[in-house]
Structures are given as structure tokens and as C-alpha cells.
Amino acid sequence: MSKLVNLFDNAVCLNEIFYNVGLLPGWFADIRTAIVEGKPIPNRYDNQGELTSNTMKDGEKLQYKKFDRKFSEDILIGSKVNAPYMFQLDKIIYNRIPVIAIIRHPVYVIGSYQMPWTATLNIANPLTDKRYKDYPFRNSFAKNWPYTKGKKQLREDLERKAKINCQAELWEYFAKVLLQYEKDVHIFKYEEITDAVFTSLEKFAGLFDLSLPQEIPMLENKNDDSRYKHLQDINDAVKLWCPSIERFGYSL
Question: Are strands 185-189 and 99-103 parallel, antiparallel or unpaired?
């Protein structure tokens, strides 16, 4: 979505640059001034030098670049960060910063966490990442972790189920945060963006009084069971821990 926002003539979205929510208003002002004055700003680019849409898979490098087009002083500035912003959503809303939230069916969110390129993500490692050390995971696999006894295959199976069940609990936690603030958040579904990108961009444009981009890209919906491993474990975990899927129009 951050890459799509940059298609608009008078909008710029930064991909995982600013994490400190308390400083966001000042950062936005600084970025706006830099852009209007024709100075370079930071963003993340893939191995081909294009704005990255997948920092884990396509490669990413922080670079400062100037724009080859002019912007007006009312340019829309956005900042995309995932879980760290979700944990501070109340502060972002308090600062009156409009929020766009992207939600995706939990089976495929959790499926994506099993991919090799996401192995280092903190949210993909909820049992070992210190940021979740105080999170009250309720599933029995997590309560019995770490698994140090038994055959290697059995330990690996239990470790995987512990991780997947924790990932499902975190999806539900974030879903409940969105539902708590749903009047203050504009929710876009991954499935709708990929299947009907023009309609999604039209909706986004309407929120911020923007003109639609001249070129609308084609996107691929990657909610394909054949792409993901351990789907049975994932489905079992989602059934147990993700009741909010129905509130977003999802089902199993």
C-alpha cells in the first residue's frame, strides 16, 4: 500500500522510516518542507532501485532521493510501519493523524510468516523476540515451551505449533485493536486491494481529495493455499484464536 500511495501526484509514503510515534507530527512537517524545497528524502528501495513493496523478499536499501516532479504545499505525507504502529495506535489517533489499516485473512498472514524471507521478523518469532516477553499467550503449546525432551521430529512439531498459535493470538490482538478504534481508522482489505486495485485507490483518493493516478497497476492476490506450509496447523490455530475474522467478513 505504501508503494501505491506514491503513485498519486501529490502524495508520498515512507516505508518503515519513522518509528517514534511521538515525533511523527514533526517528522511529517520536516519531510513536507524538504519535498516542497526539492531536497532528497529517505525511503526504501528494492534491488532494482524501485520503491520496495516487500522489504523482506525483494530486498531493501535506505536511500535519500530527490523527486523529478513538483508538489504543492498541501502534499499528503504518509508513513507505513506495521506492528510497532499497531501497539501505539491510540497515540497516533490522539495526534489526529489519519490512519489507514490493511487487514488480511489470518490464515495467509500466518502462512506468510512461515516463509524463509520472514524468518527474522519479530512478529514471526513471538516466543523468542523480547518485544513479546510480557504478552500473555494463552495457548497450551506456548505454556509448555521450550520443548527440550522427546524425539527431534516431535520437538520440531511442537515448536512449530507453539509459534503458529502465538501468531494467531497476535493477529487477534491486532484485530481487536482495530475494532476498538474502527470509527477512527480507514480499513482496507488486502483481498480487495489486490482483486480491485482501481476501486481501492478510488476509495483512498476520496479520503484525501486526491486525483487518481494515470496508471493503475495490476496486482496479484497471493491467498493461494499452494504457496504456504503447515496450513492444517494454521487453520486449527485460527479457529481457536481468531474469532474476529467474522467481523471483517472472513470465514474458514
Answer: parallel
CA distance linking residue 125 with residue 131, whole number of Å: 10
- Render the burial of 109-147: b for 16+ CB within 10 Å, e for the rest: bbbbbbeeeeeebebbbbbeeeebeeeebebebbeebee
Please give the Cα distance from 114 to 250 (Å, whole number). 21
Grid coordinates representing 94 are 490522539
| Grid cell locating 145 | 515451551
For residues 224 and 105, the answer to whether their CB atoms sit within 8 Å is: no
Query: What is the C-alpha separation between 215 and 212, in angstroms, rounded?
Result: 9
Contact at 8 Å (CB) between 52 and 80? no
Our measurement of the distance from residue 58's CA atom to the centroid of its chain's CA atoms, rounded to an integer in Å, reads 15
| Average pLDDT estimate for 112-116 | 92
Indicate the domain borders of the chain: 1-80, 82-196+217-252
Identify whether 146 is preceded by a cis peptide bond (ω within 30 of 0).
yes
- Set of cell numbers at residue 31: 519531510
**Euclidean distance between CA atoms 93 and 206, whole angstroms:** 20
Distance CA 118, CA 108 (A): 13
- How many helices, marked H, and strands, marked E, lie in the chain? 10, 6
- Per the document, the length of the chain is 252
Helix axes 152-180, 231-241, angle to 10 degrees: 40
- Residues sharing a CB contact under 8 Å with residue 48, sequence separation 6 or more, in sequence order: none
Predicted TM-score (pTM) of the model is 0.93
pLDDT 10s digits, 206-225: 999 999 999 999 999 999 99
